[in-house]
Amino acid sequence: MAAVSTAKDPSGERAAGLLQAALHQVLDERATARRVSVAAAFRSEDESPYQDVLDRAREASAESRRAYDDLRLDEAIARASQAIALFQEGAAGLRHMGRLTDTLEVLASALTLQGSAAEGVATFAELLTIEPGYAPRDLPRPVEQVFERALDTLRTADSGELEVYSNPPYARVFLDGRFQGTTPLTLPAVNPGTHYLRLEKLGHQSFGSTVKVARSGPTTTQTRLLDLSRGGELAELLRRCRRQLPEPGMGPALRELGRRTAADRLIVSAAAQSGEDITYAASVFDMGSGERIGLESRVLPADAPDAFERARTFAARLADLATEPAPDEETKAGGTPPGSLTPTRAALTDT
User: For a Cys-Cys bond, which of 83, 208, 213, 318 suits 60, CB 3.0-4.6 Å?
Assistant: First the structure.
């Protein structure tokens, strides 16, 4: 399944980024949906070098855990340190922080048991900086005491401010794996310390790095996003797809997008902003039958505090449509025959 949220014009770029993040999040949470990347179909191998780096990071992380469980502490420390360095190198593709936080726990625990309690506190503090609610289980008592010291350190620390800018703007911002909004973006209350920043924008290479947020005053990052080598080709195809969205059936550009991504279902949305309102118009297509199986629109307030949650609600509705049985499957089950399927048409206004 592939999902892409595009802007009808420059006014809709921020809204398109918001829905794109919501669609990815919703689809990734569903066991019945396997999301394929639209950008990957237009990206060369040398434009995603982080995958090999992250594979090596996960391998080193697993080795560190095995070494720690066997009380081979020197090896556990060496492998965990190697894994963390690789996770930082591959930050552009680091979407889930679970393996990283587990590696930091191994490193902090091994350092503590080896007699380096101060380094253990610092490493646990690094873990809690990116995952404040982290709650380890079954720690040896000396390690548990060091973890509690790290908690006390962070409780008394002043929060910092992070300003994120990109060229071009309206890139999706992920901090420690969690979506925060689109650039330009100011995050007013961020734990001081090292964080993992990732920027994504359709047609551009993903960017990722660590950023150290200061205890007082703003920390500012400015990133120039590199074009995909075939980004212009993708932009032109999406422009044609937007023009065909209002038309009946599934136009040739939409078919080409489905073919390029090898997706069984395709979600395509176009966003525009007028004044204080965002308008989304989206369609869901079944590649097997070549039919539109859903048509939805929604109007949302542009500056609502819960704008992302509202976008998630809309994304969930589109995901529901995309996971419905295909027209031929419905016919086998005694449902509506192919060719007579009536698209879902619901103009929903959320104010």
Answer: 83
